[in-house]
Amino acid sequence: QAAAMTPGSQPRLNSAYFKRIEAIEFAVKFDDGLGSGLEEADIVLVGVSRTSKTPLSMYLGYLGRKTANVPVVKGIEPPSALFDIDPAKVVGLTIDAARLAEIRQARIRNLGTSPKAYAELLEIYDELEHAAAIHRRLGCPVIEVSELSIEETAQRVIRIVEQRRAEAQAS
Hints:
Layout: H1 15-29, E1 43-47, H2 53-62, E2 67-71, E3 90-94, H3 97-111, H4 121-138, E4 142-144, H5 150-170
Parallel strand pairs: 1-2, 1-3, 3-4
């Protein structure tokens, strides 16, 4: 298709645009527990590997929400800052164990580098139980992502965080 040659056909560089870019950059900077900016986040996602934390963070960033994500790894304590931040912005992510095994097996085939236990069902059950214990300690709501798109999950996360913030302000 030929260019319309009409001024203004590019998106406007307004405050909403710059807010979105800042939120996406934030998601990159604080991916997988990197950095020490959990208190600056609008949303903090907590879950095991392959629960879509990173793509969800990027999409939420695109929507203008500063999102950090923290991986739950069996045998490694989450950062203490996670337990000190506003609990209203923390949302846990979980997934069906069999579905997680499928995703991880595909990842191993594609990358050829992950440890075998990474995709073993019994190990995954232990890992998900460990994550559930962390979620309980945090007192955060948990979204089951097995059959959800990133967009559906994002809308649920936003709804939960906004509702929890409203409840906290009301009390």
